[in-house]
Model the fold of this input.
Amino acid sequence: MIITKLDYKLSFLIGTLIGVLLLPILFILDISFPYRVAIVFFAPFFAIPLGLLFGNFLQSYFGIGARFSKYAASGILSFAIDFATLNILSYYTGITAGLTIGWINLPGFLLALTNAYLWNKLWVFYKNDGSGIFTHLPRFLFVVFVGLIINSSIVIFMSTNIAPPHQAFTEQRWLNVAKIIASAVAVMWNFFGYKFIAFKN
Done:
C-alpha cells in the first residue's frame, strides 16, 4: 500500500475539520495561550498530511505504516467529533460526572461511530471487491460495541471515582482527561478489531 495524491488531499480536508472541531473545546475548557485560535485551527491542517507522509516513509522502508497513518488520521477526526460533542453537551447541561455522563457521552460516540465507519470502509481498509457500503456493518458494530463499553466504563469510573490530582483540573477538564485515557485504550482495540474482524475479507 502507498499513499496517493488523493490520500493527501483527503488528509488536508480531515485536518481542516479537526481544527474546526477543536475550537469550541478550546473555549469551553478556557485554555489560553498566544495565538491559540490560529494554532489550534492550522496545526491539524499541516500535521495530518505530515502524518501520512511519515506513514508512507515507514511503508517504503519497513513495509508497514501507510494504513495505520490513514487510520490515525480518520481516528483523530472521530476523536475530535466525539470530544467536541461531549464538551458542548456537558457545558450546556452542567453534567460532568456520575452515571448520567454515560448518556452525555453517547451522542458524540454515535456521531464519531458513523464517521469512523465511513472513513474506514471507504478509505482506510478499502478494497475494490464489489461489496456494498453496509456489507461490513454488523462486524464493525460488534467491534464498536466492545469499544463503547471500554470507552464509557473508563470515563464513568475516572470522572466519578478518581479525584483530580491538582486544583488546576476543573471537573470539566478532568472529564476530558478521563476521555483521553478511555479513547487511547479504545483506539488500539478498534484498530485491530477493524483490521482482523470488521473489514477482514
Notes: The chain has a mean pLDDT of 88. The longest helix spans residues 66-93. Residues 142 and 150 are 13 Å apart (CA to CA).
